[in-house]
Amino acid sequence: MDARRLCCLALPLLLVACGAGEQSQPGNPSAGARLSASGAPAPQHAAAPGPAISFSGYLSQYTVAPATGGFLVTDILSGATQLVPADSRLRFADTALALDLSGNAGQAYRLYQAAFKRKPDLAGLGYHIGTMDNGAPLNTVAASFVTSQEFMSLYGAPNSAAFVTLLYANVLGRAPDAAGLAYHVGNLDGTGPLGVRLSQAEVLAQFSDSPENIALLANAVRNGIEYLPFGSSLPANAMAEYAGQYDVTVRGADQGAIGITIQPDGTMALFGHLVNQDAGGSGTLQPGGRFSVALPTTAGQSVTLTGSLNLAAGVLAGSWVNTSTGQAGVFSWTKPVQPALKFPQVQAIIIQRCVPCHSARPTVPGFNPAPLGIRFDTEAEIRARSTQIFTSTVQSQFMPWANMTGMTQAERDLLAAWFAAGMPP
């Protein structure tokens, strides 16, 4: 076949959109797909990711939104802002956010959606972003998806026409148009004008990176793509560690407050005042201290709170949206700052609960001076016996004997905190 005839055959194909197979027309979201020399739409080679920028808090402590010149990152707690480049990779204390929406991260995210008809899991997405960052092309990643058990369970073993029809339904959410169906079936069967035979993985990649699919998923990724970098994981705190009462302050389209109670099994109860209405409901804390709970309001609306609890930093933060009205804002709670422990606080407990028995002049009837040679009359004597105090009052709680002087659990906790702080003066 001479070059002149090849060009004549290729021309009609250049007018076929890769996602839809329709004629290229102004306003058609499928228009403008770039075709390779073979006549098959070729996914663009993604550019390398931009700079890696780190933030000390969990992702939920920040809002990330498109802005002139990149993306604006705002700290919910302090209000501090930082403008980052549009292709950045952001690292947080618990997870990561990719902003290269047209790059490797965007391609990997869309391929997940196309292959499995679901939002990507964070660890799997991170793995495949990493392989693409290391040079793997989109078709190679697509091939690994096509051979997975999940893909085979979803698509089965259909003929070419049935496979393409499933791609239209699962990826683009619609039935195929006649031209698009014929185009992709021809590519799969090698019966197209150029006799090109493409694999299911190559056709899947065409659909995932088509202009139509990019447009369909644009809103889902407009504020970045969350993922777990390969080898990392969410915080692994036991669920019981999150148990407690958290009084959350709400800001944004409305001011309010929400009380969040977390049980040791992760069960959550949320009640308070939000968007000028009372709201309340329940949910379940997820691994990593994450949650997303929809709260019905007294006005028949629904408010969804999405956030996480950072135990290490003592921060609970996130965003809320009234799905009925579109109002939105943020919420936060920070662990109250405990005043620094001082020895006089500890000595006051010892004097009240231990010195009545262990002293040169005990006040409890029947006790001789300094029983067993132990007394706590001075700071030096208390520090010299610090190990015994810790084991008997904090660990075993064996002392005071029969708790005859009434040492409270709060006092034992204060002693434990003083020991944990290194017994400061």
Automatic annotation (TrEMBL):
<keyword id="KW-0732">Signal</keyword>
<feature type="domain" description="DUF4214">
    <location>
        <begin position="142"/>
        <end position="216"/>
    </location>
</feature>
<dbReference type="Pfam" id="PF13946">
    <property type="entry name" value="DUF4214"/>
</dbReference>
<protein>
    <submittedName>
        <fullName>DUF4214 domain-containing protein</fullName>
    </submittedName>
</protein>
<feature type="signal peptide">
    <location>
        <begin position="1"/>
        <end position="22"/>
    </location>
</feature>
<dbReference type="InterPro" id="IPR025282">
    <property type="entry name" value="DUF4214"/>
</dbReference>
<dbReference type="InterPro" id="IPR038255">
    <property type="entry name" value="PBS_linker_sf"/>
</dbReference>
